[in-house]
Amino acid sequence: MALVLHTSPANKNAYKVLVAAEYSGVKVDLVDNVQFGVTNVTAEFLKMNPIGKVPVLQTPDGPIFESNAIARYVTLQKSDNPLNGSSLIDQARVAQWMDFSMSEIDRCIGLWLYPRLGFSPYLPPAEEFAITSLKRSLEALNKHLSTNTYLVGHSVTLADIVMVCNLYYGFKTVMTKNFTSQFPHVERYLWTLVNQPNFKKVIGEVKQVESVPPSQSKKSAPNPKAKKSPEKETPKAKEVAVVEEAPKPKAKNPLDLLPPSKMILDDWKRLYSNTKTNFHDIAIKGFWDMYDPEGYSLWFCHDQVQRRKHSFLCHHEQSGWIFAAYGLSSQVRFCKDADHWILTSLQGEGSLAVPWS
């Protein structure tokens, strides 16, 4: 049975496998017609990858998913393949740069790009963090490449193939010339390798994006043509309408007369909910960036050190204080207990427990 690679069209992760196959002289048949939501959710496909992602490689011994694992499997088809490193330390460094490429380069490019394409919520503080993290990673890569033509040794390895495919995607989609010019050795590295025959055969011509794509809103515009069908009022409904008293107007809270705040709590709550790593650098920094002292106030609740041994006591006392102060609309409480900062909106929007240690 031949090796068969299932993927979607123009998939950078599939390119890693195909370029590795070209360098290794290994034949891989390509099936690049996977349609998300159609092909990848069939029972047959889910047997190959239970979460329905691509690429997936069919082998005589069964399927393999995750692009780095597939690429390594392909290179191992050739004994003493220089793509894997010529010594134990080189093999370890190949794995090192493959991991670095995925966790420090590809991840940051995705955090920058995908919200702009509408695949996840677009939040400026999160984007700023993604760009800062990417710059830090590219600075490290640029420094290494200032004295090295390749990542490991003196020829192309699997580390270079993985790195170039990830960088190529960034150059193609979101990393403009103005951005990448800060990293001249990375630029030289990328353009040198994408023009090598084995890369060019798979990827084709590479053109750098001229501008960062605008952020896409997920909100759909209301349809003016859609009209509600008029409901016929029954005689009984008319009688009930006559009997029922008009609702009494709610008493106005004096604080409702204040001008609206420019801080939108939902924006920060979304940032909080979507932050999975580097919480303090993203979510907490985002809070202070969005905080509007003209429209909100922060209340600090300090408890005795002895009581911090029992978190539930802190929570009970803070809950009582919150209930007593509930009439203060348009305020924010930011309380500290034994384990968390507790940010609570007095507008009835709930609270969030933020680890502080």
TrEMBL record:
Residues 228-240 have a biased composition (Basic and acidic residues). GO terms for molecular function: glutathione transferase activity; translation elongation factor activity. It comes from the Eukaryota. Residues 251-301 form the EF-1-gamma C-terminal domain. The keyword Protein biosynthesis applies. Residues 213-224 have a biased composition (Low complexity). Keywords: Elongation factor, Protein biosynthesis. Residues 87-215 form the GST C-terminal domain. SMART domains: EF1G. Residues 1-82 form the GST N-terminal domain. Residues 210-240 are annotated as: Disordered. Pfam families: EF1G, GST_C, GST_N. Belongs to the GST superfamily. Probably plays a role in anchoring the complex to other cellular components. PANTHER family: ELONGATION FACTOR 1-GAMMA 1-RELATED (PTHR44372), ELONGATION FACTOR 1-GAMMA 3 (PTHR44372:SF1). EF-1 is composed of four subunits: alpha, beta, delta, and gamma. This is Elongation factor 1-gamma 2. It comes from Zostera marina (Eelgrass).
